[in-house]
Amino acid sequence: MENDELKNAILTVVARFDLFDYPLNDFEVWQFLPLKASYQAVKANISVANLNLNDGLLFLNHRQNIINIRHTRYRETNHKINIIKQRLNFISWLPGIKLICLANVIGANNLKPNADIDLFIITKANRVWLVKLLATIILKIFALRPTDNKVKNKLCLSFLVDETALDLSVCRHNNEDWYFSYWLAGLMPLWGSQSTYEQLMKANSWLVQQLPNWRLSCSAPLKRFTAKEANTKLSKLGNYLETFSKKLHQKLMNQALWQNKNNNSGVIINDHLLKLHTIDRREYFFLQAQERISQLTLR
Q: pLDDT tens for residues 28-70?
């Protein structure tokens, strides 16, 4: 591997995370590198890259302030996680839920203080609509859903998928969608089974191609999924309730979601996957990152 290729790859990773005010240490740079390299090679080439280093963290010129941002958000995220775990007790008991993850965190423990909490939920087969409906009702009753006036620490049910549709490649803009790779690698399991999390990662083998140095987190979810399998009669009732839940959503769900569904990778709505992001900023992130990278490599 040419040193210039590795150096440019290092600059690329740091520039991308700079968009999220997140300076990286050398191990994180290695993990999120878009090409295969040894950790030792990355460390050796960081010194010749056009980057600044302070407190063990790498950042672009005139961006030293993001070191304090990272430390502040780290403390804030730990506080938020304790709140989230308490609030998950309201919905984690629902039949059909297999895994609940904290999502949309680019950079470990990088939640903004006043932000809501995006959840990624894996359900049993053919239960995304029912779980979405029941969880929405419960969170609404206890005022735990984000509103126009209150979003801080509210739980957002923005992404649900059932166990038959764990391959999330349909959610990528294209094969170069580095943002979604970081999104998937950054999922933080908070409730459920480790095996379900591992099945998710196995179903998305393309992640290894995008992030060849990244590996499954060794930290297991904090609880185990222990719900018993439903009997045949309850399964038939569950199928009826799933159909009812879908029809109810069609009547009550925000029309902007239905109008944009399946036209892009931001909003995907079907019987196995609900990805409800009407505001998808990935194109903006791609352009901004490329601009930063171009400025760095021209020097």
A: 999 999 999 999 999 999 988 878 999 999 999 999 999 999 9
Greatest CA separation for the chain = 68
The amino acid occupying position 4 is D
The parts of the chain modelled with pLDDT lower than 70 are 1-2, 217-234, 256, 260, 262-263, 297-299
Q: CATH: 2.60.120.280, 1.10.530.10, 3.40.50.1100, 1.10.10.10. Which one for 3-67+284-298?
A: 1.10.10.10
Spell out the alpha helix ranges (H) of 89-193.
128-141, 178-185
Q: Euclidean distance between the first and final Cα of the chain, in Å? A: 21
Domain ranges of the chain: 3-67+284-298, 80-280
Instruction: Note the pLDDT of residue 3.
Output: 80
